[in-house]
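Thread: L,D-transpeptidase family protein, structure

OP (GT): Posting the sequence first so everyone is looking at the same thing. Length is 191 residues per the record. Can we get the structure tokens written out before standup tomorrow? I want them in the notebook alongside the other entries.
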Amino acid sequence: MAIVRRSAATSVAITTLAGGLMLGATTPAATASAAPAAAGSHYLKFDKNQRNQTNSALYLMKRASGPDKVIKKYRAGSGVTRNSCTRFKGWLPNGTYTVQFQAKRYNGSLIKGYVIKISDKRCPGGTLRNDLFIHSEMTRNGGQGATEPTRWDGPSDYKSNGCIKLRPSDIKNLFATADRRGWPTKLTVVN
């Protein structure tokens, strides 16, 4: 007769066989609750608007056997110039970026609150673009502050120092949707 005991804290299953022999198996804690989606099945796509960089689009996408599926679309901006080689001012260079982390209570010197950190990238001219995020203007706790970097005032706030910017309600919606559907591991920038 086999008796199975599971410990939720350690995710170890111990099976006691007839005669007292014990077998143990470690299982990943993630198996206790199903993951929302397979790893790598979601990605972000930033489509630059050549006429108005503060009216571009960020998409949460799902890979599919046919055309990839748009899960959500958000208005977004990037930079204050279309020159992707201008550090801290130009919009992002085209290409693929790695999503390094996401946080809901980020407390950087300039950026606070909900953020998605993306990898560095060289522009076609060779300039390294670093300190790149998808973010909004908010306080560390996700609220609205009294000063410009922590307060969303309107369409002019889609301008950035080279990052991708969303309205506070949109980045919160992106986080909620990604929490349910699966977090993207890549960002693709196109025009």
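GT: Both are above now. Quick notes for whoever picks this up: The CA atoms of residues 36 and 181 lie 5 Å apart. The longest strand covers residues 95-107.
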